[in-house]
Amino acid sequence: MVSLNTPLCDFGWKAIDFNLPGVDDNIWTLEKSKGANGLLVMFICNHCPYVKAILPRLVSDVLALKDLGIETIAIQSNNSENYPEDSFENMKLIANQFNFPFPYVIDDSQEIAHFYNAICTPDFFGFNRNLELQYRGRFDATGRGEPPPNNTRDLYEAMLLVAKTQKGPVDQKSSIGCSIKWRE
């Protein structure tokens, strides 16, 4: 497992459209995914210990953001031939197990991960209502373990600010996670 950190936010970078199949048997696009106040695009997978460590809290925070007009989409871009835990069938199981309140889609060609310059799982891209990037940071300080004392909800607080002001925080801490598993 290779742990990587994401680059910091390129404020104003415009979201790139996609057309990806979801575990709910729908095809999801950027337009179909966005909320009245913004969109959280996150690259996650099933096998990553960094994702597993935050998943229940992530689902809870995404539900709270939905009430603020921020919608979310999760993209799985790993090579599932080499990482079968990340297969489409297993994506369906995880989405059901955790009752995902967001579309979970597969980027089998890995094209969208390349377009977004996704580095790791989890990798978060928080956009305002104009689909301009306002946050590219961590979920919180958890890493692969338990949340530390006095843990802050970095992602939630950043997207709350985006919902209210359409601007993200200037101070952002990069996300850390497992590298995207690219095809050769």
From TrEMBL:
Source domain of life: Bacteria
Matching InterPro entries: AhpC/TSA, PRX-like1, Thioredoxin-like_sf, Thioredoxin_domain
Protein name: Uncharacterized protein
PANTHER family listed in its UniProt record: OS07G0260300 PROTEIN, THIOREDOXIN-DEPENDENT PEROXIREDOXIN
Gene Ontology molecular function terms on file: antioxidant activity; oxidoreductase activity
Database matches in Pfam families: AhpC-TSA
